[in-house]
């Protein structure tokens, strides 16, 4: 059986380097190339004849990277956050145009996917909820893609969550965090953290906390490897690792 030819874009970054090591350990995958800032991604894909390109780069460049990958008729596995709904629509059209697939995941940790799934279920019974996401101090965007995806899953078919009107004076601007559909999201950035999220539900006389902690970047690799193996078999754009489980 032929090995899947894999190129890692952003290979000198922390997530990219971890992905390189993970791919090298898999007998059915072949690491054919590595690219990073300053490299010509188009030429690298052409030279290596990569079938799947994994992108762990930066929110400011991720869309152009994905467009390059898809236009070169390679499949994309994207862990870089920062893609907007408009970006995803454009990616979906490019997948169709070039007959290739793209897997975009806000979080590749299986435990994080389960956290989001459990939060969606809990919201049916305890609709009042806030999200606290905590990441290392080098993370380029806030809130995290995981927090946004969690809020979207909780909201589901609802446009927003109606909360009890409480008169509140913010003594410090934005102290209550940002908001998506009535769900407040709080972002923490500190040295010593990797990737963590706590979803807190409130009800009459009770609270429920659903938390996931990635204590090392190894936690993301089983999901990344699974996406590399499956991206050739899906159809078009797939958003969220839960769609592969």
Instruction: Calculate Rg over CA atoms.
Output: 19 Å
Query: How many angstroms does the end-to-end distance come to?
Result: 24 Å
Number of helices: 7
**Spatial ordering of strands, largest sheet:** 2-1-3-4-5-11
Question: What are the SSEs and their pairings?
Answer:
Blueprint lengths: L3 E6 L4 H11 L4 E7 L5 H8 L3 E4 L6 H10 L3 E4 L6 H14 L3 E3 L5 H13 L5 E8 L9 H11 L22 E3 L2 E7 L5 E9 L2 E9 L6 H10 L6 E3 L6
Parallel strand pairs: 1-2, 1-3, 3-4, 4-5, 5-11, 6-8
Antiparallel strand pairs: 6-9, 7-8, 9-10
Helix pairs in contact: 3-4, 5-6
How would you describe the overall organization of this protein?
With 245 residues, the chain is an alpha/beta fold. It folds into two domains: 128 residues, 3-Layer(aba) Sandwich (Rossmann fold); 105 residues, 2-Layer Sandwich (Dihydrodipicolinate Reductase, domain 2), CATH 3.30.360.10. Helix content is 31%, strand content 26%. It is built from seven helices and eleven strands. The strands form two sheets. It has a six-stranded parallel sheet, with helices on both faces. It has a five-stranded mixed sheet with strand order 7-8-6-9-10, covered by helices on one side. Strand 7 and strand 8 form a beta hairpin. The chain starts with a strand and ends in a 6-residue tail after the last strand. The mean pLDDT is 94. One of its GO terms (molecular function) is NAD binding. Keywords: Amino-acid biosynthesis, Cytoplasm, Diaminopimelate biosynthesis, Lysine biosynthesis, NAD, NADP, Oxidoreductase. It is found in: Cytoplasm. Catalyzes the conversion of 4-hydroxy-tetrahydrodipicolinate (HTPA) to tetrahydrodipicolinate.
């Amino acid at each position: 059986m032929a090995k899947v030819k894999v190129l890692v874009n952003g290979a000198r970054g922390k997530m990219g380097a971890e992905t390189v090591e993970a791919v090298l350990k898999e007998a059915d995958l072949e690491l054919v190339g590595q690219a990073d800032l300053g490299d010509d991604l188009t030429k690298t894909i052409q030279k290596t004849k990569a079938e799947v390109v994994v992108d762990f780069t930066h929110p400011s460049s991720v869309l152009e990277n994905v467009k390059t990958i898809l236009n070169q008729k390679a499949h994309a596995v994207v862990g870089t956050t920062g893609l907007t709904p408009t970006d995803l629509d454009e990616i979906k059209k490019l997948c169709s145009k070039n007959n290739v697939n793209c897997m975009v995941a806000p979080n590749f940790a299986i435990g994080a996917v389960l956290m989001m799934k459990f939060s969606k279920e809990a919201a049916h019974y305890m609709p009042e909820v806030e999200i606290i996401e905590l990441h290392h101090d080098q993370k380029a965007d806030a809130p995290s893609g995981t927090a946004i995806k969690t809020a979207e899953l909780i909201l589901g078919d609802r446009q927003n969550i109606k909360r009890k009107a409480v008169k509140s004076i913010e003594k410090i601007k934005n102290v209550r965090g940002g908001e998506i559909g009535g769900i407040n999201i709080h972002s923490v950035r500190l040295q010593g953290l990797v990737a963590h999220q706590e979803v807190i539900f409130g009800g009459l006389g009770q609270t429920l906390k659903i938390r996931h902690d990635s204590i090392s970047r190894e936690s993301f690799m089983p999901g990344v490897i699974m996406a590399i193996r499956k991206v050739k078999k899906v159809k078009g754009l797939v958003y969220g690792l839960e769609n592969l489980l």
